[in-house]
Amino acid sequence: MIDRALFLKGLAGATTVATGGLDVWAPRTQQVRVLVAADTRGETPHVAPDGTFAFGGRRWRGAPSTVGAPDGTMLLVTTIDVDQYLQGVVPLESPPSWPAAALEAQAIVARTYALARRTLSRPYDVRADDADQRWGGVEAEHPAATAAIQSSHGRVVTFAGGPAEVFYSACCGGHTADASTVWNGAPQPYLRGVEDPHCAPAPEYRWSRTIPLDRAVAALGSHTGGTLVGTALANPDPTGRPQTVALLGRSEANVPVADFRRALGYEVVRSLWLRAVRIDATQAPPQFVIEGSGRGHGVGLCQWGARFFASSGASAAEIVTFYFPGTAVTSV
Ligand SMILES: [Zn+2]
Predict the structure, then answer these.
(1) Confidence of residue 73 (pLDDT cuts 50, 70, 90)
(2) 122 shares its domain with 261
(3) What residues pack around ion ligand 1 (CB closer than 5 A)?
(4) How many angstroms is it from 216 CA to the middle of ligand 1?
(5) Do residue 138 and residue 172 come from a single domain?
């Protein structure tokens, strides 16, 4: 999933690809350069007779090359057909047991994401980790995902005739997020958020986490003079997500939800949509309770929503255009 602090570097980095039109999407140019390792540490890829290569204890596809970085380290980059790359991406994002239309929607969005990241500004287009899309190589591949990639071959998300800027996360919690409030950028019209009736059965549609108050003070107390006696949620955006958490200690602070989440950790604060934050002083020791909706940043395609939408008979194109309203799924 594209649920990563690295995205906080902003949407600007996702727009470096030429956007001159569909000509840049021609199938013959559908190759991406994937950064397999940011530092080879002296290891060289071992190419096997079947065209795969071994590196770092795993097998990968594409044509590997090493590239010297300015700091003297060597990068390992593989140049690969985008669909071969997707074979090791889609199964890590959407369980292969999910309906075919959900896997196809994931493939279309992941393909669009990778192709839109192509750039001349660095020696690779996407990283093989959560900074872009996690790529597990050959061992991650699964026949159901490969079938979905093949049946959606060449299909990408477009807006006004050009490539769309796409994102996805595990579960939106009932309304996808507005990219402009999550990343402080000017939103594309199709990234403003939609009400999502599909993901309600998802396991983290509503979640709650309880941690010792001492741990919360250790993570957040620098904002409030080392104590924590009260909390409140404030400044809801148009999708209903509070934008700040008010913390009261010796002093009072309004902390952006993204900072609050980073301070307590992504395993504790499962999403950017907080429903309640409170101190439970009836417990010994006192506890800090956080409740919320969904999992991940919530922008764009909701993966669990796609799963249940597909179960009700929706096609991949219907799923994609629901989560990115105003876009089209185009074959190139
Ligand atoms: Zn959803």
Answers:
(1) very high
(2) no
(3) 172, 196, 199, 302, 305
(4) 29
(5) yes
